[in-house]
Amino acid sequence: xxxxxxxxxxxxxxxxxxxxxxxxxxxxxxxxxxxxxxxxxxxxxxxxxxxxxxxxxxxxxxxxxxxxxxxxxxxxxxxxxxxxxxxxxxxxxxxxxxxxxxxxxxxxxxxxxxxxxxxxxxxxxxxxxxxxxxxxxxxxxxxxxxxxxxxxxxxxxxxxxxxxxxxxxxxxxxxxxxxxxxxxxxxxxxxxxxxxxxxxxxxxxxxxxxxxxxxxxxxxx
Amino acid sequence: xxxxxxxxxxxxxxxxxxxxxxxxxxxxxxxxxxxxxxxxxxxxxxxxxxxxxxxxxxxxxxxxxxxxxxxxxxxxxxxxxxxxxxxxxxxxxxxxxxxxxxxxxxxxxxxxxxxxxxxxxxxxxxxxxxxxxxxxxxxxxxxxxxxxxxxxxxxxxxxxxxxxxxxxxxxxxxxxxxxxxxxxxxxxxxxx
Lengths: 221, 192
Hints:
The structure holds 2 protein chains of 2 kinds. By secondary structure, chain A is α/β, with parallel strands linked by helices. Chain A has helices at residues 2-13, 55-58, 73-86, 133-142, 194-211; strands at residues 22-24, 34-38, 42-45, 89-93, 104-111, 116-122, 147-157, 163-173, 179-188. Chain A has one domain (2-215): 3-Layer(aba) Sandwich (Rossmann fold), CATH 3.40.50. The radius of gyration of chain A is 22 Å and the shape is globular. In chain B, α2 (47-62) packs parallel to α4. Chain B starts with a helix and ends with a helix. Chain B has a single domain (20-77, 108-190), classed as Double Stranded RNA Binding Domain. Chain B is built from 4 helices and 8 strands, in the order αββαβββαβββα. The chains are: A alpha/beta, B alpha/beta.
């Protein structure tokens, strides 16, 4: 009986505590809402192997049920953007905003026996996310967007062969290039999928708690 | 023996625990209602995202919105080329006929245009609202998914309404199914 209790305690100890958000938000609601440009999450290796920033290379050649993506943005961005929008921001997505019109070709072939096949091809071109910072600001200004949201996923050593991950999300003012608010979450990295998902949720909840606390769901920060 | 029985009892009880009911939040902005809306294509661009966009388009149309589907409207006049190939084979003892028809249509749709052209085209069509659909997985135990449908005014990006649903899901469910369920839940919440 005592063994069962010890086992339950040991199991509970394996669950990592939820990360806490560190929020730097000025008083007032001047930057609490509005249309902003949001850029894809970038990864920075800080004193660790650069390959750690490319999850797909970590499992290359290994049999996996679900292959890892090329970038942590796949995990971070959906959650982060959902929370930012529920906090009141209207997001223009830099990676989805084309600078040039793409060429589309739709094809359909019908064979004599009634079988058919169809295809669609659209050329990919540069997007706002591919521009240097100065040009990104110019685009944002031309579209009447007041701010630019950037998010950086940093991986650094955490001692004893471990690594930690930090997600820092910043809203920059387009005109002055000054940061308006910063939200940061970090934890020891224990999964290439789990940690970015948890940190995105943590940062999103930090934004919600600071700017729209009435829209926060679930556990406290 | 007693510990094993207790363990089995706990495991059985855990299987019978109901999921938490969905959490739905609806927010209405101060902006005036909109009539003609365009659904901004999901950035992921996969078949799942397109399917979810289609679910939302159908729901909004049912509620009386004019939904402009950017990937169905040509941005420019598109060029259509049709090639019909007929083959008659007389080399064998019997004559055989065959044909292949290939249709190629080239030219951009509204979903393919650059951001400035898109803005001008939306204004020209009288689109006064933009719809954004988002889904996200939330890591933790139990696993959850969130979906949000948000309508904003085109003119000033102000909120018309947004609805969010957070669902507890099973690890055995497919991510695509979960996303779709969450979107349907959010839409149901927005109908209140």
